[in-house]
């Protein structure tokens, strides 16, 4: 968020300056700057009024005027005849030995529009230089950190266009790089660190910024996943299945009744067999 503010602040200031310029020009009217009322300080009833389209009025008199900005001379005419003449400089009208001061029109921009325009331009330039200096300073700091973080295995590119891989970092603020390939042959150069234009080494500031950006992206992705509405289940066109029948085990099956009637029970009172006759004597 802070980086975005720093990025768009000069643009917002430029738009603000353009708006102020437009209002200033609108307030000034964009026409003749001598128009207005000129009042005699000794009496408030003695007024020369210079209007648009080079018209003027002084009491009951009226007509057109001719103003020469180079020498400040003004000539009042009525019916193509000159009525009076004088000078007009810095808001002071002098006619017939009398001095008239321009009355404030009450329009702030019409009076101070040019000063406001110049002030806004100056402030905008100052702010622009300040932000440009801060941005260049931060870039220079990151570059210094990258140079200090160079280790063997990092890729570097010198200001002369030599590209290679660092194989050794020397104590005298120099590095030894390896260029070429196995087929074309390898060669080694010793470079001063200050001559390194670009490298893939990362300093603490760059690492912290990348980690912060990664955390923001992860948090944003998690928030989007949490706020995403759940997809509704698609209605099934298949008919509802009938409930499954409970299995029937064989022992639970009732035995079918026999069609034949059961045999009648024997009569307990049936005749017992006759006792054997006693042997006759």
- CATH level 4 superfamily of the domain at 36-104: Uncharacterised protein family Atu4866
Sequence of strands across the biggest β-sheet? 1-2-3-4-5-6-7-8
The CATH architecture of the domain at 36-104 would be Beta Barrel
Estimate the helix proportion, in percent. Answer: 25-40%
List the total number of helices: 3
Q: Can you tell me the residue ranges where pLDDT is under 50 for at least 5 consecutive residues?
A: 252-256, 266-272, 277-281
CATH topology of the domain at 36-104: Lipocalin
Largest beta-sheet details = 8 strands, antiparallel, barrel
> In the CATH hierarchy, what is the class of the domain at 36-104?
Mainly Beta
Strand content: 25-35%
Can you offer a commentary on this structure?
There is one protein chain. With 281 residues, the protein is of the alpha+beta class. Among the domains are: 2-28 and 111-140; 36-104, Uncharacterised protein family Atu4866 (Lipocalin, Beta Barrel), CATH 2.40.128; 150-199, SH3 type barrels. Helices cover 33% and strands 27% of the residues. The chain is built from three helices and 13 strands; from the N terminus they run αββββββββαβββββα. It has helices at 2-28, 108-148, 204-227; strands at residues 36-39, 47-50, 55-58, 61-68, 73-78, 81-89, 92-95, 98-102, 155-158, 163-169, 174-181, 185-192, 196-199. The protein has an eight-stranded antiparallel β-barrel with strand order 1-2-3-4-5-6-7-8. A five-stranded antiparallel β-sheet has the order 12-11-10-9-13, with no helix packed on it. α1 runs antiparallel to α2. The radius of gyration is 54 Å and the shape is elongated. The N and C termini lie far apart (144 Å). Residues 252-256, 266-272 and 277-281 have low confidence and may be disordered.
